[in-house]
Amino acid sequence: MRLIIAMQTNQDKNDQFLEMLDKYKSVIAKVCCIYASPSADFDDLYQETVINLWNGFDKFRGDAKISTWIYRAAINTCITWTRRNKKHNNAVTLEADMPIIEEESSKMADYKQLQFLISKLNPIEKAIISLWLDEKSYEEIAVITGLSHNNVAVKLHRIKEKMSKMSETY
User: What structural domains does the chain harbor?
Assistant: First the structure.
């Protein structure tokens, strides 16, 4: 009887995890894309993030929103990966998977420029600006990054200034 209950519990956990993963795969992909580079392959980052989410799934207590927990785990995984690979080249190459419509080419150029500038930031700056671009509130960014609300506001202001100066240079 115990074995059957344990098997059902494991199956329930697997189903819940796969459902959560399906719902938030774009969040995970977004974070991994920002940290991906030639030496940190997107697929490897994504896989490592999923593994870390699986390993921590039992520990999620629901104190924060699941999306906040996922963002935090994905960012921490990518930052850890970056730190482990000090020779990490931050250049990001974006390739469109589909033909670009002429009207969209300007938007795509702007997007590539933004991604390029983000790739030049340090790991915590990448996390903060990415969360802000995803329209997360300062409070959510603070919870995800472990910073205070005021620290997020100051860092975000400095990041915007830094990116503005970099855009003039590049």
Answer: 2-169 (1.10.1740.10)
